[in-house]
Design a protein that fits this description.
Rossmann fold; 646 residues; alpha/beta; 42% helix; globular; 5-stranded parallel β-sheet
């Protein structure tokens, strides 16, 4: 890998792995060490991009954890992993950190195959408690002495999985410590009752003052008998119930609750963590932190923007934007955001739902224009789907926008709560296909396949922004039952996209170009790669017919009869998994109708794809314009060879 030089402080320079931190850095030096680590993150991310404010918010916590615990023997499980840059830098990856999220570089998320310090592969939220609990039980079964620490943000605590882990964790006798990193933020501001509950705990100065006095009292009376701790805990629980007017949620789940404490006081953190190491059983430490801590523009600016700001001037905080020479097509997500408002103004039954991604999917446009009809339900994809089903059962038309990768988490709800009842829920699957730098955990590789096998489900994908508008219009114009529209991350291909709405016929594709040698069938925006390839192929004397399928289910059988009647060489192209996807549907039709043709399927192969730019990954997976050209040329050469030997 190419080596780069970034600003590294004299203390940070001494630390390559956590053992160095524990041996070479004194407790008094920890605040300066944290400052140097924070500066290093700012320096690299400003020039290379990546997730930003989340990692700045846990610098002190990261340092304290590695300072106190014997990693990697003790297991740290980071939830999601947006906040793990400091962890990566301290665990042998400082010198290659500039390759973070770059093609063939290190991953943007914790990854066990990359480092023994990454205890668990993460990328989706709310998995840390269950995973750490599983590790803790494994250690107990194998009679190993280890500490197990799950670091979870308050945003991730809104998912049901986190509470499922807490529910079992409270009854298992394990060395499990849950650290609640509370900053009132996921990517967008947190919502819901849990946020209000945590705010109540955090802001109850009276409770915290009395709590300190109770534990001071505990230290004094512990000399007088073994039951002093139990007595003091009962006293404390009573005080909590009185002052907060409710019992402590976590202690009701049998977790010893500590905090809230300042998550930016590294020396105090180390003292508290050292104390907690010696307390057996499930524990939760509530830390109050600030996203973007230590970088003024991120502290004071738009918090969602600084989650992953791209490149920026670290001195001024100015985001570096490359201004195109001519107008650019909009992002698909923005077309969705503006179009749903346009449709909702005409149809008062339309509502919008997103699980904690209003800015990521652009539902924030509707939330601003129609706050009573757009809902951010928190990081809770399962709930988002069933919530949508409930509204649909009462005659509303929910547009439920969830990233393709995250929709995997709500698959049962789609089948059981929506499709089984044939409810009119419009699933808008953003980030369909390969998404780029976020890598394997975030690619939307499977939705065409996993939705295609569900009864009652319509599965569609627009070629461009105009088609996205038309599909959204079609989905709400009539009750077709569950309706899926998937679109990719990034920009479309049409600048003047706001055309009059057109109702499409369900299951009808279209011929974009006539030809005589090879039929190419594409689904979705990846069809633009076919368009690029056609000019080169035509110049080499190969006549191409190009069909935009639009729908994978129901698939256009009239179009396919036309294709297999006229062509014995067919290429399918999709930005999704080959197995079970659109190409599979085409082959199934061919076999069921007794056609014979040489069909080549291009798409995501049967493996997990790592990170890189979308163009780099399209090339690696062999379904970009170059792949189309090569495949078509080989088909023609094979056909000519067969004729010559006949």
């Amino acid at each position: 890998m190419e080596m780069h030089t970034y600003t590294t402080g004299k203390l940070l320079e001494q630390v390559d792995i956590p053992e160095d931190l524990r041996k070479k850095i004194s407790e008094d030096e920890l605040p300066q060490f944290c400052s140097e680590l924070r500066d290093f993150i700012i320096d690299v991310v400003s020039q290379k991009g990546g997730h930003f404010s989340a990692s700045l918010g846990v610098v002190e916590l990261t340092v304290a954890l590695h300072y106190v615990f014997n990693t990697p023997h003790d297991k740290l499980v980071w939830d999601v992993g947006h906040q793990a840059y400091g962890h990566k830098i301290l665990t042998g990856r400082r010198k290659v950190f500039h390759t973070n999220r770059s093609y063939k570089g290190i991953s943007g998320f914790p990854k066990p195959t990359e480092s023994e310090y990454d205890a668990f592969a993460v990328g989706h939220s709310s998995t840390s408690i269950s995973a750490a609990l599983g590790m803790a039980v494994a250690s107990r079964v194998q009679k190993e002495e280890r500490q197990h620490i799950a670091i979870i943000g308050d945003g991730s605590m809104t998912a049901g999985l986190a509470f499922e882990g807490l529910n079992q964790g409270g009854v298992e006798n394990t060395n499990l410590l849950v650290i609640l990193n509370d900053n009132c933020m996921a990517i967008d501001p947190n919502v819901g009752a849990l946020k209000e509950y945590l705010t109540d705990i955090t802001t109850s100065h009276t409770y915290n003052k009395v709590k300190d006095e109770v534990w001071n009292l505990l230290g004094k009376i512990s000399k007088f008998g073994p039951n002093a701790q139990q007595i003091a805990q009962k006293i404390e629980n009573g005080i909590k119930a009185t002052l907060l007017k409710q019992s402590n949620l976590f202690e009701s789940l049998n977790f010893r609750y500590f905090g809230p404490i300042d998550g930016h006081d590294v020396i105090h953190l180390t003292k508290v963590l050292n104390d907690l190491k010696d307390i057996p059983g499930p524990k939760i430490l509530h830390c109050i932190t600030e996203k973007g801590k230590g970088y003024k523009p991120a502290e004071e600016g738009d918090t969602a923007k600084w989650h992953a700001p791209g490149l920026f001037n670290k001195e001024t905080g100015e985001i570096i934007k490359i201004t195109p020479n001519s107008p650019e097509p909009p992002k698909f997500q923005d077309v969705f955001g503006h179009t749903i408002v346009e449709l909702a103004e005409k149809n008062d039954k339309i509502v919008g739902i997103t699980p904690a991604m209003p800015s990521g999917c652009s539902l924030n446009i509707m939330m601003k224009a129609m706050p009573d009809r757009a809902f951010d339900v928190g990081i809770a994809e399962q709930h988002a789907v069933t919530f949508s089903a409930g509204m649909a059962s009462q005659g509303l038309i929910p547009f439920c926008n969830i990233y393709s990768s995250f929709m995997q988490r709500a698959y049962d709800q789609v089948i059981h709560d929506v499709a089984l009842q044939n409810l009119q829920v419009v699933f808008c699957l953003d980030r369909g296909g390969l998404v780029g730098a976020d890598g394997a955990t975030h690619h939307g590789a499977y939705d065409l396949a996993y939705f295609r096998c569900i009864p009652n489900m319509i599965v569609s994908a627009p070629l461009d922004e105009e088609e996205l508008r038309n599909l959204m219009f079609t989905a709400q114009a009539e009750n077709y039952g569950p309706f899926s529209i998937r679109f990719p991350r990034g920009n479309g291909s049409i600048v003047d996209w706001k055309t009059p709405f057109k109702k499409l016929k369900i299951g009808e594709g279209r011929r974009l170009k006539s030809g005589s040698d090879i039929a190419i069938l594409s689904i979705g925006a990846i069809g633009t790669e076919v368009t690029k390839a056609i000019e080169t192929l035509e110049n080499s004397g190969i006549s191409i017919a190009h069909y935009d399928m639009r729908f994978v289910k129901p698939i256009d059988e009239l179009l396919l009869h036309e294709v297999f009647t006229k062509f014995n060489k067919v290429i399918t192209v999709e930005d999704g998994c080959i197995q079970g996807g659109m190409g599979s549907a085409v082959i199934e039709f061919m076999v069921d109708n007794n056609y014979q043709a040489n069909v080549k399927r291009l798409g995501i192969p049967d493996k997990f794809i790592e990170h890189g730019t979308q163009d780099e990954l399209y090339e690696e997976c062999f379904y970009n314009s170059k792949a189309v050209i090569q495949t078509a040329t080989q088909l023609m050469q094979k056909s000519a060879s067969n004729k010559a030997t006949a």
